[in-house]
């Protein structure tokens, strides 16, 4: 324990990352700004967990986005003694587990390393996210169905997506649905539930921090297998909204709440 030096605190904001600068600026950047404003005396560092995206963006944009390991090394070099790691991940999935492993490999280099929670960690988080999104889409009428596209994972935490779909309806929003692009509930399961509701219009929106490849292609793209075209082929009017969760002020504030929970 360092007792004879000044304690220096830093926030390490960890995101999966995106190669789409347009959505990054209004999602990841906005969340990081909110975190920094909430803890003005702490330095802010950025790390991404997708090495493929890091490699692509660093080469294309001539920047250097760090991995978690690189960020930990940089903070040690900069004399940081206390690290507040705040992920912008949606769930406690594979990326979050690997992030913790990478950070804790440097536990002997710092006085403390604390981890803030991903977006959906507690029942309270679930209720707040439902409230935030129901408010953002308060203009919906009962003839419209709002369909969110989550990412999905092989991690056991994937069950949160089906639970959240149920919770939307339990909280009085029978026309809000949630499925995933890579796991369960799938678009096929989702479509059966939406068909049973019998809406006149489908509003599509990503349930992901950024509106990147999945949102632009798998959700709203021109491919016949995109969610947009699957619903169109079924005879629905379809309106895609390319707005990542990170754009919503309420979501940014929820990440800030998670950070403040671990701030010493």
Automatic annotation (TrEMBL):
It holds the Pfam family CbiK. It comes from the Bacteria. InterPro entries: Anaerobic_Co-chelatase. Gene3D superfamilies: 3.40.50.1400. This is Sirohydrochlorin cobaltochelatase.
